[in-house]
Write a structure and sequence with these properties.
InterPro entries: Extracell_DNA_Util/SecSys_Comp, PilN. This is Fimbrial assembly protein. This protein has five helices and four strands; from the N terminus they run ααββαββαα. It is α+β, with helices and mostly antiparallel strands and 256 residues long. Among the domains are: 79 residues; 87 residues, Gyrase A, domain 2 (2-Layer Sandwich). A hairpin with an 8-residue loop joins strand 3 and strand 4.
């Protein structure tokens, strides 16, 4: 017997396909939501871990800031203590400084120099005195420059020839005014560490002044015979003089 299906089978197949499509779409949506949730959860966990790290770094930075502030405070306290210690050392040194300075002046003042007055202004001292000649003043400058332990950097302010007060014969002397710096012990240590001295004394060149009572240049003195003054041909003249001296000194053999 032949069976004939009179139902709308095409419509039924269409409904089945639509239901399958909806099911696949729902399944895809669920899978997508699951993937999104998984990725979001992973990112959230990573962000949470990074936030924890950032918080740890912030806490460490705060601790370091506190330590840095303490270190800065300690440095200020150390500098204040050093300043107080230096002030105490300066007071201790300045207490005996006049004695040392006067003793230094006595040691370094050469014969023929008379100090009329001296005045201290801070670490500078103004000296005023009389000298027999300008050479004595130059010697005092050299002594204060190279040999003095408590005095340094002398500067000659004025020098002039005057008549000795109370002298009936009108004797001429040299009146001078100079300033000199007073050296503290720490300045002496710094100078020793500088390394710019020779045998503990700086190399100083002081021009020798004119002789006593002579303000004009000294006259030229003619050299004695037998001494050749080198000029443009100084080397040749010196060699000739040596040869002549050797010839004169050669002994003559006695005749047989």
């Amino acid at each position: 017997m032949i069976r004939i299906n009179l139902l709308p089978h095409r419509e039924e197949k269409r409904k089945q396909k639509k239901a399958a499509f909806v099911a696949m779409l729902a399944l895809g949506g669920l899978v997508g939501v699951a993937v999104v949730l998984m990725v979001g959860g992973y990112n959230a966990s990573r962000i949470s871990i990074q936030n924890q790290r950032n918080q740890v770094l912030k806490d460490a930075n705060k601790e370091l800031d506190v330590k840095i502030a303490k270190i800065a405070t300690l440095k200020q306290e150390i500098e204040a203590l050093k300043a107080r210690q230096q002030a105490v050392e300066d007071l201790q040194g300045d207490r005996n400084q006049p004695v040392y300075v006067l003793d230094e002046l006595v040691k370094q003042t050469p014969d023929g120099v008379y100090l009329k007055s001296f005045k201290q202004d801070g670490q500078r001292m103004l000296l005023n005195g009389l000298a027999q000649s300008q050479e004595r003043v130059a010697e005092l400058l050299r002594n204060l420059t190279g040999n003095a332990q408590w005095l340094e950097r002398p500067e000659l302010a004025e020098v002039k020839a005057v008549t000795l007060p109370g002298s009936k014969s009108g004797r001429k002397v040299v009146e001078f005014t100079m300033t000199v710096s007073i050296r503290r012990p720490r300045d002496q240590d710094a100078k020793d560490k500088d390394g710019k001295t020779i045998d503990g004394k700086p190399a100083v060149t002081v021009a020798a002044p004119a002789a006593e009572g002579a303000l004009a240049p000294a006259p030229m003195v003619k050299p004695p015979s037998g001494i050749v003054a080198p000029g443009a041909n100084g080397a040749a003249q010196i060699a000739a003089a040596k040869a002549a001296a050797a010839k004169e000194a050669t002994p003559v053999a006695a005749p047989k």
